[in-house]
Amino acid sequence: MYQTASQFEAQMPNAKLLLSDEPEMESSLHSDQLMLLVACLDWLWRDRQDYFIGANLTIYFSRQQLKNRDFRGPDFFLIKGVEKTPRPSWVVWEEDGQYPNLIIELLSSSTASTDPSLKKQLYQDHFRTPEYFWFSPDTLEFEGFRLVGHRYEPIPLTGTGQRWSEELELFMGIKNGQLRYFFPDGALVPTPQEAAETAQQLLQQEKSRADRLANYLISQGIDPDRLGDD
């Protein structure tokens, strides 16, 4: 029987009651990797307010899913073009029908059989998520797929072992056993701590150069503090 939009909406549960129902990450390797992915992208896009990152958060997309308690929460998902505000879960019918632009699953012993198969099928056929990656913090297995037409096609590795993400406009690859983002020129996207340490190093280098110049001027009988005085 045909339902109007208002009738369909009336059947949807109150989104305010839909909290995330995801289990904790399997190990500290997985939780550290997840925090790394979130922190680096948040730092890079710190001036943007038009995206949402879900970290181990349930995506609610249908009444049948709720009835069957068939919850699907990617370890990491990115949705662009939305307001950057906290949410207890991602409720598709409350977000203008928007599904993730990009999903990253962190494989573990309990999910290695479902993430590359059942979830991949869901993200391809129902979510229509443009890009899907998976990475194992244990084995370092790393795969990526881009939606081409109606099917996921593998994203090829570069000569440096990275895969290009059109959604992020960044490369993704493994460094020191962790999945990291890389700029188009190959430079590593830093963590906030790494960025702060680099800034501190640059400041120290500038101070060192200024000190050397001041010492040279003094050796020549010039008071650097009086330079520029009339």
UniProtKB/TrEMBL annotation:
GO terms for molecular function: endonuclease activity. Transmembrane segments: none annotated. It comes from the Bacteria. InterPro entries: Nuclease_put_TT1808 (IPR012296), Restrct_endonuc-II-like (IPR011335), Uma2 (IPR008538). Keywords: Endonuclease, Hydrolase, Nuclease. It holds the Pfam family Uma2. Residues 27-170 form the Putative restriction endonuclease domain. This is Uma2 family endonuclease. It comes from Synechocystis salina LEGE 00031.
